[in-house]
Amino acid sequence: MVFVASSRILALICFSLLSHQHLRLAAGKCHVDDETGLLAFKSGIAYDPSGMLQSWKAGTDCCTWSGVTCLVGNRVTRLSLYGQPEDPKSFLSGTISSSLSKLRYLDGIYLQNLRNITGTFPELLFDLPVLDFVYIENNKLSGQLPIKIGRLSRLGALSFAGNWFSGTIPSSISELTQLGQLKLSRNLLSGEIPDGIRRLKNLNVLNLDGNRLSGRIPDFFSSFSDLRFLNLTDNRFSGEIPATISALAPKLLYLELGHNALSGKIPDFLGNFSGLDTLDLSWNRLSGVVPKSFKNLTKIFNLVLSHNNLVNPFPEMNVKGIESLDLSYNRFHLGEIPRWVASSPIIYSLKLAGCGIKIKLDDWKPSQTYFYDYIDLSDNEISGSPVILLNRTNYLVGFWGSGNGLRFNMESLRFATKLKYLDLSRNLMFGKVPGSISVLEKLNVSYNHLCGKLPTTKLPASAFLGNDCLCGSPLPPCRV
Ligand SMILES: *[C@@H]1O[C@H](CO)[C@@H](O)[C@H](O)[C@H]1NC(C)=O
Ligand SMILES: *[C@@H]1O[C@H](CO)[C@@H](O)[C@H](O)[C@H]1NC(C)=O
Ligand SMILES: *[C@@H]1O[C@H](CO)[C@@H](O)[C@H](O)[C@H]1NC(C)=O
Ligand SMILES: *[C@@H]1O[C@H](CO)[C@@H](O)[C@H](O)[C@H]1NC(C)=O
Ligand SMILES: *[C@@H]1O[C@H](CO)[C@@H](O)[C@H](O)[C@H]1NC(C)=O
Ligand SMILES: *[C@@H]1O[C@H](CO)[C@@H](O)[C@H](O)[C@H]1NC(C)=O
To answer: Which residues form the signal peptide (predicted)?
Structure first.
């Protein structure tokens, strides 16, 4: 009897132990290998000023740690740690521990904007059997990309944007045929784009901007039927814009080839990109006219063609609403600010410096002034006064109008509350410098006809040089 009772009690105890165990499993207590791997990662981090890894404590369930996701029962499937860009303390210093390879079920690794993660290419990526997404961005990884990078052939996305990788892009990258996104932006990569990238037929994002890549841009774009974003800005590419880019119409949304050494003409076929949102061809050596076919870029929001050798006539565009336009420093003689620009209901940035504009600024009445943040009309032949414009553009942050024939009394200027940058150097401005300039971060009124004592200012003397009779700090004292 006693025996039976105790065995019943035993059974009861066993049952309750089992069910506790069961409950804990259901709650997803993480696998010991995952815990070990993550704690090794934590010990590779020397400094964590914002406490990003504070919740990572041995013996607690690693599935509850910040940045850790468990699916597949109790296995860690994703590690995602983000530094907040606005918070100067939100970073991690250290290296990526190779023990992360213990996380056998990891399919996504996101170590973004941690800023001070150093070391070479994380070889552990090769040891993770189900890895699919890699975003190790805005850190300080350095050295070369490994020759065997093609072994990561099951990856759907690979980004090492914003690191310090140098050397060439290994040709085995052509084996990453599942990639939808390849981002190697803002590293120190050199050499040519490997032709084998043409085999990555599923790419919808190809960003190699901000490197030292050179040679011609390969003419291999007919391979990519899904490409939406192409960014090769800020490299050393030469030669013409490749003809097969025409195959990317009409799906391509972003085409950014600025800050290179591309030459030749802007191809007519770009007018076929009816869905194009952003076109940046600035800072190249493109010549000739902007094709008439640009009339058909009806959806374009950002058009940046500055710093080339483009000439008139500029096509009458048929845009619903352009947001930003930069045609500065070509060989245009536009005469006027194009009507299709002035009528845009949403434009916030207008840059037409050195465009041969000859208007009286008082006569320019854009249909909307509410959204304007930046207006650059430097180095034109603009006369009159910006007083009315600056009084109407309430949210303007910067106005650049140097090198024109603006003739007005500076004391009549009223600064919108948001205005921070004002450059009216090399004009015909007269009167005194008003005390209201104290709200500006940057001001340049040098080489005008201003006179009188300067108000208190922290601006350097070069902001005021070359006037008729300005005096007082930072210029020499006024004579009494
Ligand atoms: C970044 O990491 C390096 C090496 O780990 C260290 O010397 C440096 O002090 C760190 N920088 C900051 C801002 O913590
Ligand atoms: C393209 O690259 C340039 C240069 O790195 C960068 O400033 C720009 O933001 C990139 N565009 C997009 C859409 O990411
Ligand atoms: C624009 O696209 C149409 C239809 O796809 C094609 O026939 C035409 O040749 C293209 N234009 C240019 C200049 O490539
Ligand atoms: C704009 O597109 C239409 C239809 O797609 C085409 O017929 C026309 O020739 C194009 N205009 C220019 C200037 O390329
Ligand atoms: C500036 O605008 C205000 C109201 O919006 C108006 O009363 C004032 O006359 C304007 N000043 C100038 C110089 O245009
Ligand atoms: C002001 O403009 C002049 C001439 O455009 C230039 O030389 C000078 O460096 C500028 N100074 C500041 C503070 O921007």
So the answer is: 1-28
